[in-house]
Every structure is written in structure tokens, then in C-alpha cells.
Specification:
The protein is α/β, with parallel strands linked by helices and 315 residues long. The chain folds into 2 domains: 115 residues, Rossmann fold; 176 residues, NAD(P)-binding Rossmann-like Domain (Rossmann fold), CATH 3.40.50.720. 37% of the residues lie in helices and 15% in strands. The chain contains 12 helices and 12 strands. It has a 7-stranded parallel β-sheet with strand order 8-7-6-9-10-11-12, with helices on both faces. Helix 7 links the parallel strand 6 and strand 7. Helix 5 crosses helix 7 and helix 8 runs parallel beside helix 9. It is elongated and about 70 Å long. It starts with a strand and ends in an 11-residue tail after the last helix. Bound molecules: 2-keto-D-gluconic acid. The site of 2-keto-D-gluconic acid has 10 residues, from loops.
Length: 315
């Protein structure tokens, strides 16, 4: 008999077919009243398939007394009820590592774009402005200083990319990592003061909320650029908009925002900002690899009792 899984949101067709072949999957997202459905049928499911974006609420968890495993599409864990799941012995799987390259590539794409102004130059050509004059000079990237907030799995790949651009790398984490060859800055402010580009790759959630504050942006200074490919919550977005409007920093490259998919009008109005729609992991190759790991986590759980890639701190 196939295990019964509840599926939170729509998923790519290829992945959906495979998931439905191996499991008895019920699409919660098709229910007009998911809360009423959960109250009546929540006890029937042993697995939950979700994503970093949607996570699982505490209320959903409480409505699923037979739940044994959560498999989440994505590396972010701030939307997952880890403490409550841990207390009940529910295994939680996610998709780390397989997206490191694409997220690091996106961070570097934003570094290049915001400094060399490729997107702005593209708009310049399309508007026909080249016929009227030259595009203004931009800022070089090679040989500059790259500061990384959150030198974890993705951050280390960003640092490796930087070596190809002859950039010096320093980082700030809660604690220094003795196994990396990069300089450690004890505070985010000192890292920002040192850096030409401050790249945010730390995890989201309450612990990192608004770490990039008005003070950090001031330390980054009028020649510094902020890049964010982690979570909008890590940056105080109002302070960032003020800093950009007042020229306190040189520009920003953003893939993530405080209230996605809504991007503040004041950001849209700025020319020295590159705005992406949270696409860092969104390539055919990486999304396929993420989908496979979501499936592997489920298969491993149901055959061995443990997911392949388990979120830390959870049984
Ligand atoms: C995806 C992400 O957009 O992995 C993450 O945490 O933010 C992205 O890879 C997300 O998983 C989709 O829900």
C-alpha cells in the first residue's frame, strides 16, 4: 500500500508525476477550506510535502497526529516548525547543497550587474538613448573587496567565485570558521566598513532579522554595494530604501524582499538597484535536483526511518 502524503502547494509537473507514482498524494492546495479539510482528514496522512516558501504552520502540524515526515523543497528552514516537529519525533528533510552553485552564481550576477550597470545599460540601449550619447562610466569589480555575511555552504561557493575576480574576501558569522582561508570580521559593521560589496547569504528567521541595519548600511558607505540572495528579513528594507535614496550606499542587487512578491514602489523607482524575482535557485537543472532530493528524503524515510538530508536539531 502506498503511503499517504499531503501536498501543500502546486509543484513542477515532472516532479508531480513521480511523486504521484510512488505515493498516494492529496493536493491540499486544491481545497477551498484547507483548515476544515485538515480538521476532518489530517489524521490520515503520514507525510507532508511543502517548500521553503510555504513551510508548515504549527496549526497544520497539530491537525496531523499521524505525521511522521516533512519533506521541504528548498534550503530555507525558517517556515518549518522545527521545535514542534522535533518534540514529536517527526523527521524533517530539505534540499541543501544542490542549489549552492546557482545561488552563488546569482549573487555574482548581481555583483556584476549592480556595479557594471548591465541592466541599466540594457534599458539605455532599448530606449534609444545610445543614439543621443554615451552610457555613463560604471564601477569595476575585479580586485575589489567582497564581504560575506553568512559563510555557510552557499557563502563558501560565493567566496570561491570571488577568487576568479581576484577579489579579497572577508566574512562575518556568529563564530569564526577555522577551516576557511578568509579573514574574519568580528562585527557586521566592521565587515561593511571594509567591503566594497557586502553579500548577504545568511539564513532567515528571527535570529538574523534586520541584521543589516541603518548603521551597517552607513558603514558600507557611499561607494559600497549591498547584495541579498538570502531572505528579505535579514535586511531592514526601510533603512535600505532610505540609504539608497539618500546616496548613503552606491547601490543594491536584490533577489529577495520583506514581503514577496510585493516590491516597494520606492525601490522600483531607483536606477542604481537591480531587482530580481527570487530566482536564485530557479534553473531547470537545480530545480530538478531539488525535486529529486525531496523525493529521496521521502523514500529514505519510508525505507530506513531517516531522511537523507535532515534539518539539523530535529530528531
Ligand atoms: C526557493 C529558496 O525559491 O531554497 C530556498 O530556501 O528560497 C529557494 O530555493 C524556494 O525553496 C521555493 O519555495
Amino acid at each position: 500500500m502506498k503511503h499517504r502524503l499531503l501536498q501543500h502547494a502546486e509543484i513542477p509537473p515532472l516532479f508531480a508525476t513521480e511523486l504521484n507514482t510512488r505515493y498516494d498524494v492529496y493536493p491540499l492546495w486544491k481545497e477551498a477550506d484547507p483548515t476544515a479539510f485538515l480538521a476532518q482528514h489530517g489524521h490520515e496522512f503520514t507525510g507532508y510535502v511543502t517548500s521553503a516558501r510555504f513551510g508548515v504552520s504549527e496549526a497544520t502540524l497539530a491537525a496531523m497526529p499521524s505525521l511522521k515526515v516533512i519533506s521541504s523543497f528548498g534550503v530555507g528552514t525558517e517556515t518549518l516548525p522545527l521545535a514542534a516537529a522535533g518534540a514529536r519525533g517527526i523527521a524533517v528533510g530539505y534540499t541543501p547543497d544542490v542549489l549552492n552553485d546557482c545561488v552563488a552564481d546569482t549573487a555574482f550576477g548581481l555583483v556584476m550587474d549592480v556595479a557594471r550597470r548591465f541592466s541599466a545599460a540594457d534599458r539605455f540601449v532599448r530606449r534609444g538613448d545610445w543614439l543621443k550619447g554615451q552610457f555613463p562610466l560604471s564601477t569595476s569589480v575585479s580586485g575589489k573587496r567582497l564581504g560575506i555575511l553568512g559563510l555557510g555552504r552557499i557563502g563558501q561557493v560565493v567566496a570561491r567565485r570571488a577568487s576568479g575576480f581576484d577579489m579579497e574576501v572577508r566574512y562575518h558569522n556568529r563564530r569564526p570558521n577555522p577551516s576557511v582561508p578568509y579573514g574574519y570580521e568580528a562585527t557586521l559593521e566592521s565587515l561593511a566598513r571594509w567591503a566594497d560589496f557586502l553579500v548577504v547569504v545568511s539564513a532567515g528567521g528571527p535570529e538574523t532579522r534586520h541584521l543589516v541595519s541603518a548603521g551597517v548600511l552607513q558603514a558600507l558607505g557611499p561607494k559600497g554595494y549591498l547584495i541579498n540572495v538570502s531572505r528579505g528579513s535579514v535586511v531592514d528594507e526601510s533603512a535600505l530604501i532610505e540609504a539608497l535614496e539618500q546616496g548613503l550606499i552606491a547601490g543594491a542587487g536584490l533577489d529577495v524582499y520583506a514581503d514577496e512578491p510585493r516590491v516597494p514602489e520606492r525601490l522600483l523607482a531607483l536606477e542604481h538597484v537591480v531587482l530580481l524575482p527570487h530566482l536564485a535557485s530557479a534553473t531547470h537543472e537545480t530545480r530538478q535536483a531539488m525535486a529529486e532530493l525531496v523525493l529521496e528524503n521521502l523514500d529514505a524515510y519510508f525505507s530506513t526511518g531517516a531522511v537523507r538530508a535532515a534539518v539539523a536539531h530535529v530528531a
